[in-house]
Specification:
homodimer, 526 residues, alpha+beta, seven-stranded antiparallel beta sheet, 23 helices, 18 strands
């Protein structure tokens, strides 16, 4: 209908930035969407469009600071039920208008940038926890539900999802599923793809898919996992059946200090391969450990001590540190002088006797790798302040710097190669801190935080350079380009080097499901 | 080329049974395939074609006994390397000839029937274990490797895949992956889809895909799982990187008797939900337990005692038992008189202290559910004879009966509903024994064995009727139609009721990857 009235619109949307659309057309779009969703279900107000023009990808923060708003959508809609989503998708498909599913907006890869304009589908009104099955330990929920609220409701009934990403206050179940999110206890509870039983999803033609809700099935290929990680490019995930657990009887955290990161990694690997499944393993490399121990600007990030933001700012402004992140090579040169120490946060949960057995075996392994126990305090402080990670980097931007993170993964025998390759490449232009978390029997993820600085007019360029060096090093060293942040806009140029033929296959599937390319176009390389 | 020379052939292949192809054309096909694979890499001999005309689906056994050979392929090829497979697929695609990847031939759903003729690709020469990475606990292997041989090689080096399907002597890694196989220790070690890290696969256009070899990734959708369970309809899986574990320090099995199946199921659920991960849980329902305890014809199947096949045949011929499976309703009527007992086989492995902790917690839970321990003997006998399950049903066919199995799964809160619905439906025309194995925190699989008898001319019909009643009951009760045997030919008519929109999606993906429908046509509903 829209397309028929304004036959040139879809061409216009795809060929010029959508925010240049003339107001009359935007008004018409508003009226049409309002006829679908009613009053209050749609907005084309400038302030709303600005709010939904980005996630928290560092580069768009830099752009925003420079007064640039590159990716304004044309409208924002708030569906309340799956049928609303169906109507929006059908309307969008008919008129070849991009649609962008939006969760909490906490993505760090530009996964929801309206590169070609279009309609943001904010899922946050679809926030109902529909059913808790206490016998099977599964629940069903709409995917717009906020993560912290979901966990809180489950906790009140004695259950937990066990998913604790640092974004939990500003992310949703749907966002987690769309990006293959990992929480801080993923070593035991799994990543979100390990927790999902089945999905309801609205496909680009408006049809509704419900995958098989069995704990396991051999009834053909695994369709659920095709949509987990699709970042809005293949469907809108509207509902999910998820595993949950009973709240553990006991949870215990501790800190262990190793003389070098290699020793700490050996301990983690041996613990997991001994069949122990800790709730958390989190090893800071020497520089990261040094920053924590020195109590300097990294505190907010590491979460060892909570600081007032103002104090933090003061500290960040400290001249020596400005120098450090302006001249990261100095740090690289000095780093051999940093006392070689690497701290491991280790945690267990379960029944009293399970925790005791796990702890006993693990401490024996740590001790054999030269680890010295620091007691429970470092672990408890980490647990209490675990959500602060996401907020620790913002102050860097206030004072003229920038910061971002890259999280990759590989098998154990390739881990040090990947770590040193990427660290070296990133360190050429930034200050790099690293921790290892989300460990598996077969390998581990590596989480790089880089901090740098440049004049306003050059920040874009320096940011791009650092990212390119880091990601090039990752694919050359055989790592996967993302462990849990996703690919979005920022990493898509490396996706084709991730595996052999995978991107082609993805394009083929995308084309067959979404021939008009309406679903989150310009992301994931498809 | 083939197509160009004989433009009518692909039409012929798709429209009439392929074995009616005139010899000249078959000779030509032979010559062309020989030019690709060399001498010894291809056969069109009648005896080879007969050997590859079926797996061990019960219905084709019945047909064979009646002298029918419905599904002869046109040729069999034996590639040795991935490049051979690429050449075959390209040739087949160019000429629109069906290709059917073939592992050990132990499938029970007719998954490799050459319904439209075509080329059987027997993968058994691609049997190399390519690399063992002892640090990461992963190995890489060609997929034609025999299961028992693979496990034996790993064992010799101190490792285990932990995958013990009863077909292990006559199935391959590729077959396991293609059908989402489960082994008898799956409760701890996972199903094959839980063990796979990444795949190399030849797609229908002859391109080679290698999925990301990381323990976890957020680089887009999960492509590996799209091919696991595709049963040869989307690709030929040529290589896989798989997880492995060190051989456990200790393995311990035991038997526990419950007064009813419900009590045993409660115990299993509570053990798993307490965070204990037994290596095996296997609960026999009252009739199955009765058959085991009475030492009658079910012995070979249950594996409690090993019997000579001749003795077994004698026993099966026993008049009373013939009556039982000829008149299964008698059993249904009598079953309330069977002493209500349900036996659980429980097993643990790991280090001494892990096994002790797991056993202590589990026995406490079993005791609370009214279980009486039978000591280690029933468990040890089960473990020693665990591979006999697959061979126990053959004698039934010798004496004029037939038997088959159906394995389904659902969440715990739906398990008894699914169990009683299917048991009732199957019992109308067959003698039904059931065990529950492959348990998860969220649910469990149910394994039905049905035995029946009919005159030769009516066996087909009675078999179809029993299967239909069982499968209809499964989808009506919300179970998944297969937990680990796959769908193949026999269950495909129920796949569309398995989930909402899944079959349509599968058809769309199949069409985009395989527009000429060369990959194992006529299976999986696509």
């Amino acid at each position: 209908m829209f397309y028929n009235k304004y036959p040139g619109l879809h061409v216009l949307i795809f060929s010029v930035p959508a925010y240049k659309l003339i107001y009359m057309i935007k008004d018409e779009l508003y009226e049409l969407l309002k006829s679908i969703l009613g009053d209050g279900g749609v907005s084309v107000r400038e302030d709303d469009l600005v709010s939904y023009s980005r996630d928290i990808w560092a580069k768009t923060t830099i752009e925003m600071q420079n007064g640039k708003m590159k990716h304004l959508p044309d409208a924002v809609v708030w569906p309340a039920v799956t049928e609303d989503v169906v109507k929006i998708i059908k309307f969008a498909n008919e008129n070849a208008i991009p649609v962008l599913p939006f969760g909490g907006g906490s993505g760090v890869c530009g996964g929801i940038l309206a590169c070609n304009g279009g309609i943001i589908i904010d899922m946050k009104r679809m926030d109902r926890l529909l059913k808790i099955d206490e016998t099977s330990l599964v629940f069903s929920a709409q995917t717009g539900i906020n993560g912290e609220r979901l966990e809180r409701i489950l906790n009140e009934k004695g259950f937990t999802l066990g998913h604790f990403p640092s974004s939990i206050y500003c992310s949703t179940l749907g966002g987690w599923l769309a990006t293959r999110s990992a929480g801080q206890l993923s070593t035991k509870y799994g990543k979100i793809e390990d927790m999902v039983i089945s999905l309801e999803a609205v496909l680009p033609d408006g049809s509704v898919l419900e995958t098989t809700p069995a704990p396991r099935s051999a009834a053909g290929p695994g369709l659920t996992q095709l949509f987990v990680g699709s970042e809005g490019t293949l469907c809108v995930i509207t509902r999910a059946i998820m595993k949950m657990r009973r709240l553990p009887e006991k949870r215990k955290f501790m800190g262990i200090m190793f003389s070098a990161v290699e020793n700490g990694l050996d301990a983690i690997r041996n613990i997991l391969q001994a069949g122990v499944v800790p709730a958390v393993v989190r090893l800071y490399d020497e520089l990261d450990t040094f920053m924590i121990a020195e109590g300097r600007f990294h505190k907010g990030h590491s979460g060892i001590k909570q600081l007032e933001e103002d104090n933090l700012k003061d500290m960040i402004l400290h001249k020596a540190e400005r120098l450090l992140f302006s001249h990261p090579k100095i740090v690289s040169l000095l780093s051999p002088l940093i006392p070689g120490r690497s701290m491991l946060i280790l945690g267990f949960d379960g029944s009293e006797e399970q925790v005791d057995t796990d702890e006993k075996i693990s401490l024996r392994i740590c001790s054999a790798a030269g680890g010295k126990t620091l007691g429970e305090e470092p672990g408890n402080i980490w647990w209490e302040t675990r959500y602060k990670v996401s907020y620790g980097l913002s102050p860097v931007f206030y004072i003229g710097g920038f910061a971002d993170t890259i999280e990759v993964a590989t098998t154990w025998n390739n881990l040090l190669n990947l770590y040193y390759s990427m660290k070296e490449s990133l360190s050429e232009n930034s200050l790099v801190m690293v921790h290892f978390s989300h460990a598996y029997r077969e390998g581990c993820s590596i989480y790089f935080t880089f901090v740098a600085s440049a004049g306003d007019e050059r920040k874009d360029e320096v940011y791009d350079l650092i990212l390119k060096k880091g990601m090039d090093a990752c694919v050359s060293a055989g790592g996967t380009i993302s462990h849990h942040h996703g690919v979005g806009f920022s990493k898509q140029r490396w996706l084709g080097r991730e595996n052999k033929g995978g991107l082609n296959l993805l394009k083929l599937i995308k084309k067959s499901l979404d021939p008009k390319n309406i679903m989150n176009p310009g992301k994931l390389g498809v």
